[in-house]
Design goal:
The protein is α+β, with helices and mostly antiparallel strands and about 450 residues long. Helix content is about 30%, strand content about 25%. The chain is globular.
């Protein structure tokens, strides 16, 4: 396998551009306009598209599964479609190299056949590897970091037509781990995997006050621990998962956000339903880790259809220091008492270990995530922003960013270093778009 070992003394390595790449057509001394859509099948397709956009003074953006709840993937220039760029390129022990357009679900299936697994990942199996990495997608575990924490190396196509191979431990690697695509196009990712394992997940409903009391202990007792909170019903539905032996017959888990939790939340908000039988949520599932950790199988077009039909709904995920999670939830509970009808779904809760990626919400701290779904009516978003900015929150880059650019710049100690790396790699803004410009990235 060609990937360099993790922790080697080397930093970034420029890979020679393959010969024979298509070049932009020149008409009357001017470079022709690059194509608007490029179907990527090989790395050379990415290189050719980037060079054409650069020479034409245009922009280029890689499109993953388009599952983000914001416009971080939209561009007015060339769009790279990566759905055919989706192969596993090498497996060497527990180290696996994959193309950026492969979905997490497809990768899990291949890894499972080889007795391997990612240590953790997000709940949506339809996310592409490159997209999940670039936006800092995470699972729910204080023992594991976000998905980029499992990366040993990645290949990055830059605006000047080079391919950089970035190894863990280099400065550019720490910037590229969560970059929103602003440093270049992630071509391949090298993961450090683990032996495939099985999980037993236990679901139950507990009073909100008990959840707060036990939160730190339960988060550290279980390898994976997440929840959904229905504030008006004063109940939290918890999902605790730990390793177990392979079952004779797998039992599928229930999703955190499902029809039952949606209806109960709606009835609680609209009709004052303040209790429901806890036995409705007594359930145990035993299955392979990939099925427990990524139960959501919706295709990407359903995500975008939902976004279109619920244009006034926002899905924002705030990241706060895990050490202050109880105080944050108590403050949010008091705040929501005056905004009962603004929420459209239960609230998602989970945590992640800290890391060293410049734009990671988990940079330098264990992080507690609060996933809110709400309408944009009556100024709720503005007041919610004030609450979480006072709490020093960061954000999930793949969802609605409800915090101001000025606030976010203060929350990331390596913000200026990241921007300097971005300017050095892409001074002309080939990978910029309105979303990244809004945040000064």
């Amino acid at each position: 396998m060609s990937a360099r070992p993790s922790g080697s003394g080397s930093a970034e390595h420029a890979i020679p551009v393959p010969v024979g790449l298509p070049v932009p057509e020149v008409r009357g001394g001017r470079t022709a306009r690059p194509p608007r859509h490029v179907r990527v099948r090989e790395e050379r397709d990415i290189l050719a598209a980037v060079r054409a956009a650069r020479d034409a003074g245009s922009t280029v953006r890689a499109l993953g599964s388009a599952g983000s709840k914001n416009d971080c993937f939209r561009t007015g220039g060339t769009t790279l479609h990566l759905d055919r760029y989706d192969r596993v390129l090498a497996i060497d022990g527990t180290r696996v190299v994959v193309q950026g357009g492969m979905t997490v679900g497809a990768l899990n299936a291949v890894l499972g056949r080889h007795g391997l697994a990612l240590p953790t990942h997000g709940e949506w199996a339809g996310a592409t590897v490159a997209g999940a990495v670039a936006t800092g997608t995470h699972g729910g575990s204080l023992r594991h970091g976000i998905l980029p924490s499992s990366i040993a190396a990645l290949r990055l196509v830059t605006a000047d037509g080079r391919v950089l191979e970035l190894n863990r431990g280099s400065e550019l690697f720490e910037h590229a781990g969560v970059s929103l695509g602003t440093l270049g196009v992630i071509s391949t990712v090298t993961f450090d995997c683990v032996t495939r394992f099985h999980l037993e997940l236990v679901m139950r409903a507990v009073p909100f006050d008990r959840y707060l009391r036990d939160l730190d202990v339960e988060s550290r007792r279980h390898e994976f621990y997440s929840a959904v909170w229905i504030p008006t019903a004063r109940r939290v539905i918890t999902f605790a998962a730990d390793r177990t032996d392979p079952p004779a017959t797998p039992v599928r888990r229930r999703e955190r956000f499902c029809g039952t939790t949606f209806v109960l939340s709606l009835l609680s908000r609209r009709l004052g339903l303040h209790a429901f039988p806890d036995r409705w949520f007594r359930h145990a599932a035993v299955d392979a880790c990939e099925h427990i950790l990524s139960p959501i199988r919706d295709r990407s077009h359903r995500v975008q259809l939902f976004r279109l039909l619920s244009s006034d709904w926002k899905a924002a995920e705030f990241a706060v220091p895990a050490a202050g999670a109880v105080e944050t939830l108590s403050a949010l509970d008091a705040f929501l008492a005056g905004h009962r009808h603004a929420l459209t779904n239960p609230i998602g809760l989970r945590a992640s270990a800290g890391d060293g990626f410049s734009l990671s919400p988990c940079y330098g701290q264990e992080t507690f995530w609060i996933d809110l779904f709400f309408t944009g009516q009556n100024g709720f978003a503005t007041t919610l922003r004030g609450l979480f900015e006072d709490l020093g929150a960061r954000c999930h880059w793949g969802k609605h960013v409800a915090l101001s650019p000025e606030h976010l710049q203060r929350q990331y100690p390596r913000w200026d270093a990241f921007r300097a790396a971005r300017r050095a790699l892409d001074p002309a803004g080939v990978f910029a778009n309105p979303f990244t410009r809004r945040f000064g990235l």
